[in-house]
Amino acid sequence: MKVERVKGTRDFLPEEMAKRRWVFERIREVFERYNFHEVLTPTFEYTELFKLRSGEEVVKQLYAFLDKGGRDISLRPDMTSSVARLYVSAFQTAPKPIKWYYMANMFRYEEPQSGRYREFWQAGVELIGSDRVEADAEVIALFTESYLATGLEDFTVNIGDRVLLDEFARMLGVKDDIGLMRLIDKKDKLTREEFVNALKNFGLSDEGVEKVLSLVEIKGEPNEVLPKAEELFTSEEAKAEIRRLYELVDLLDAYGVSKWIRIDLGIARGFDYYTSVVFEAIAPNDLGIGSIGGGGRYDNLIEVFGGKPTPATGFAIGVERLIPILEWKGLIPEVKLRPDVYVIPIGKEVELRKTAVEVVSALRRAGVKADVELTGRKLRKALDYAGRLNVPYVVLIGKRDLENGNVTVRDMETGEQRVVKKEDVVKELVGALGL
């Protein structure tokens, strides 16, 4: 049997992990500045949890199985359902709003492609307990600033609205509004001809198809799009939702992120649980990567899971889609997987090896990235190894130096060597490294 990696998954080597950690740390810093707090739910849940409101497409992609007790279990395809379950089980009486964030892996059985895998990571937030537009603005501003924290600036956050899409479905006389939403959500994955055929197969007339095609083209700057929306939608519910969008845009301007905000009435998002504002981030690229994250308001989900009616909103950033774009743009700093100091005992005597351990330990306690020769190589090969790692400084511990209480510090770039007292070597190197 050939032992190999499962399709749709990846092994991350140290260089890749360093890049991923850098991205996660930038995003985490912003999440916590906005006073969101980290949670983590189980990797698997009862399958029924995801069937309740995740959406037909996601349910088809579940990694579902019966465990040894015969229970129907699924690996999580998203975190929102799990967070809602956590809230219902233990936090319904907690002070509101609840502001939680997560960074975790998800699983969906879908065909791997650029930026899409069967195991993938997301960084996201859930804000539970406020139905006000201020909560939408807080979450969308955080969404925007999370990307900016990674150095990405060439992107837009496109805002749509499920209330308006539901109204549009009623205007078309469509009874299966969820089905229409799913079709609209897939529009960017289809050619125009495929999209038109899908709409016709759904049962729309030529006139209905043209109206859908016109709707999905209503996008751009808020001050251009929202007046068009006022002309198109005339019900009181739709008018109230448009007023909410105007207020949302004003608040996002106050947050200082309006430069990146667009309105796109053709955004549906793939989950059935969204109830109002929805949004996604798009960064132009040549990698074949579409949306790099998205979210929206889901005011009914808590109730579906047995909780009291509770408004909520949130988003998820697609890390697997974001990182390739950051790399393509050269925004992730160069990874340096090396110690700053390498300690080499010159000889096999116990005292030399013990002193090497003492020195490397003292350096580490002082905050210096330090390593020690562990293979027993002779000096020349140990120095060659340090050179290949591009280590700035080497500490040489020889018998004669040690007898005098000294060690030798070698600058690997210049080749210069200087003898220092053993007790001063940490201070010497900390200063040389500028730490």
Automatic annotation (TrEMBL):
Q: Which GO terms describe its molecular function?
A: ATP binding; histidine-tRNA ligase activity
The compartments listed are: Cytoplasm
Q: Which reaction does it catalyse?
A: tRNA(His) + L-histidine + ATP = L-histidyl-tRNA(His) + AMP + diphosphate + H(+)
Q: Which domain of life is it from?
A: Archaea
- Its GO CC terms? cytoplasm
Any idea where the Aminoacyl-transfer RNA synthetases class-II family profile domain is? Answer: 23-339
Where is it mostly found? cytoplasm
List positions binding L-histidine.
Answer: 78-80, 108, 122, 126, 269, 273-274
- Which PROSITE patterns does the UniProt entry name for this protein? AA_TRNA_LIGASE_II (PS50862)
Q: Name one GO biological process term.
A: L-histidine biosynthetic process
**Keywords on record:** Aminoacyl-tRNA synthetase, ATP-binding, Cytoplasm, Ligase, Nucleotide-binding, Protein biosynthesis
Q: Name one Pfam family in it.
A: HGTP_anticodon
The cross-references to SUPFAM superfamilies, in alphabetical order and at most eight, read: Class II aaRS ABD-related, Class II aaRS and biotin synthetases
State which Enzyme Commission number(s) the record gives. Answer: 6.1.1.21
- Family per record: Belongs to the class-II aminoacyl-tRNA synthetase family.
Q: Which NCBIfam families match?
A: hisS (TIGR00442), hisZ_biosyn_reg (TIGR00443)
User: How is this protein named in the record?
Assistant: Histidine--tRNA ligase
Q: Which organism is it from?
A: Thermococcus nautili
